[in-house]
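SAMPLE LOG
Freezer: B-3
Tube label: C17
Construct: single chain, 454 aa
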Amino acid sequence: MFDGLTGRLGTILDGLRKRGALSEADVTAALREVRIALLEADVALPVVKEFVATLKAKAVGHEVLRSVTPGQQVIKIVHDQLIDLLGGDTGEGGGVDLNAEAPVPVLMVGLQGSGKTTSSAKIALRLKTRERKKVLMASLDTRRPAAQEQLRVLGEQTAVATLPIVADQTPLQIARRALDTGRREGYDVVILDTAGRLAIDDALMAEVAEVRDAVTPHETLLVVDAMTGQDAVTTATRFNAEIGITGIVLTRIDGDARGGAALSMRAVTGKPIKLIGIGEKLDALDGFHPDRIANRILGMGDVVSLVEKAAETIDREEAEELAKKVQKGSFDLEDMLAQFRQIRKMGGMSGIMNLLPGVGKIKAQLKEANIDEGQIRRNEAIILSMTMAERRNIKVLNASRRRRIAAGSGTTVQEVNRLLKQFQQTQAMMKKMTKLGPKGMQRHGLAGLMPPTR
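STRUCTURE (predicted):
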């Protein structure tokens, strides 16, 4: 998300940063470009107008234009204003608010096809694993064929309880039965997945309003598809006006390169984006943090999210074992296989790169170089086609063995050789790190790991 906007804003702000002094005309010209960049990112026009007007009022002030680093000052103003636009530095966006008497009713609303049922399961899994909550899911969708069965299957996949299906019950009867079950069986949260429509109509709103009035949900979360752009903003405005939502779950942001919906949503509805769907897998759901998103948009990275993702996916015992092997110089292809799997768990190289600061230009270069994310999978296949003895000692890999491994993994001998060369370079770097030690690394930094120039 925001790839196009990040590139455009990066170019504009780099131009300001490089100039020693700025005039009001310079700032005005740059803000004109910012306005165009936001409109091209499909941000709502009223939001763009207010955003640019506020920026201009702050950026052409005496203390900015006369400062020692006016370009940096303008960048800080843009950064702070982006945070305000996305929801402010208020701690909103961390997830579902459960500060109520159990079982906490959470009402999921939205149009058909927005990912509402899948998002219900993702939220349930998040609450179960992160917050150790006992969650019950119930489908109130009696119209769409197999909608209730879909939620039941998702419940099995996430090991989250679902309300038993009873034929011919109305959405209101299902909602009441779900809350009654939640109270009797000691559930912390009851997620109610309402029916959707292809478009907003009076029947949809009446049904959702009836359920809302009966269960008095603590959270009413609207699920919208980021790929629909300004239609998503229109949907949010209507649901908020007629139902009263408490927050937004934005799905498919991984496929939305522009990001206009995310930038417009809070300003237009006044409601925070609480969660974002970042992929199809059931654990692909993140909290929406305005400060972190602003950092990503401006190419500053999101190291906090990267550390959190690593903490969730990295096995501590495996990491400690790997550290010992590196110290002993016994890093082998089995360990490299574990690292490839770890990278994929964290979203692949592109997922990690998106969270690193200052990699906008590097990412562009990688794209031009046609770097294939699928190579990690092929490398895994190559290693899995080796015997354990071959993984632990690559010296036994003669030409015939390499041909056998290539055939077994569906790759080429050249790809096998490339992987082995990469492994040898990694091994050499790790040995050098061990030799330098912590103090040596502090003295020499990354330069100490580089090969000699002669």
